[in-house]
Recover the amino acids of this structure.
């Protein structure tokens, strides 16, 4: 358990409501970004980081590392100023996140990193960046996925950070489910077990508080319509079909519109999803609630020419350093609460 006491701040925006009146709202942005292999240049004997060393396959030295940090910082700097929490994936260690938040373009945001080391075979973890003006962490836990599909299987642990936002408790779960390596169908049972692990975390939070406000985010390596998300996690694609104790997935509708967060073989996938518990869409509830979501696919993050035009501009392509950002677009949601009525 980690306890941190920090100040809270809010940005005021005006949002239209159905009655055509305007309400003053406090708006907070919560997002997720797969940073695509954010490794430092230091050899860690306990990790599989050989490719990302000066003598490794990618020739990963200080120039490339500093450029990568700068690219990630620039992407974050273009996100809304009221970005409260950003879950991240494919991070080697807490030191890389500390290096990231010190970059000039985002230093004024005073972002703080959280990361719990796991035992992933690639040596990567999920983590969290938070702005202490908007979010105050009060508890951090990390859960290891259990599976009998493969003996001695090692993947990313699942991070849960509980904290306060606008004086309310909110729980943030950050995920990076097992990849589709070996084929989608062959690897699906691993993502099933990852989904069941996530569901058990949610169930534990809801057992303590049936109206717990939970945000689930991550690179799921599955789309919003796949069994891992729909059947095993139990996420619903429509608000009206989501009841207390269940999860609403706004990325379902984005996916149905053809919007994706990464491209592969001329098709779009939406692996990077941000979901919310029923308490954040309950029209009878007060306080923080879900407003809208988007895939943050700005032009500067895209490949501008060639076969992969429009795809995310990644760090490496075919083993060649392209000095891009990531092979994933970020995914964002807006959480708001009414300040007063006019």
């Amino acid at each position: 358990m980690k306890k941190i006491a920090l100040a809270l701040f809010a940005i005021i925006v005006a949002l239209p409501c159905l009655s055509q009146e305007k309400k003053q709202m406090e708006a907070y942005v919560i997002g997720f970004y797969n940073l695509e292999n954010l490794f430092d240049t230091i050899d860690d004997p306990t990790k599989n980081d050989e490719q990302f060393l000066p003598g490794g396959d990618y020739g990963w030295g200080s120039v490339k590392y500093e450029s990568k940090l700068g690219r990630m910082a620039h992407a974050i700097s273009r996100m809304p100023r009221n970005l409260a929490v950003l879950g991240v994936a494919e991070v080697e260690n807490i030191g890389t996140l500390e290096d990231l938040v010190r970059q000039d373009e985002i230093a004024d945001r005073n972002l703080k990193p959280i990361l719990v080391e796991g035992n992933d075979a690639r040596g990567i973890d999920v983590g969290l960046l938070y702005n202490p003006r908007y979010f105050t962490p009060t508890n951090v836990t990390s859960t290891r996925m259990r599976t009998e599909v493969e003996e001695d299987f090692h993947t990313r642990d699942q991070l849960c950070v509980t904290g306060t936002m606008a004086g309310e408790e909110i729980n943030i779960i950050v995920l990076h489910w097992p990849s589709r390596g070996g084929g989608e169908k062959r690897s699906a049972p691993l993502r099933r077990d990852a989904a069941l692990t996530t569901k058990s975390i949610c169930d534990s939070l809801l057992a303590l508080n049936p109206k717990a406000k939970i945000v689930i985010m991550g690179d799921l390596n599955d789309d919003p319509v796949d069994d891992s998300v729909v059947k095993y996690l139990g996420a619903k694609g429509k608000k009206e079909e989501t009841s207390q104790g269940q999860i609403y997935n706004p990325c379902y509708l984005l996916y149905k519109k053809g919007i994706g967060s990464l491209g592969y073989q001329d098709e779009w996938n939406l692996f990077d999803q941000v979901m919310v518990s029923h308490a954040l869409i309950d029209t009878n509830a007060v306080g923080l609630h879900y407003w809208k979501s988007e895939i943050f696919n700005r032009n500067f993050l895209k490949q501008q020419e060639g076969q992969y035009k429009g795809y995310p501009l990644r760090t490496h392509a075919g083993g060649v350093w392209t000095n891009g950002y990531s092979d994933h677009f970020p995914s964002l949601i807006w959480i708001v609460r009414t300040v007063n009525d006019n």
Observations:
- Residues 175 and 218 are 4 Å apart (CA to CA).
- The two ends are 42 Å apart (CA to CA).
- The chain is about 20% helix and 30% strand.
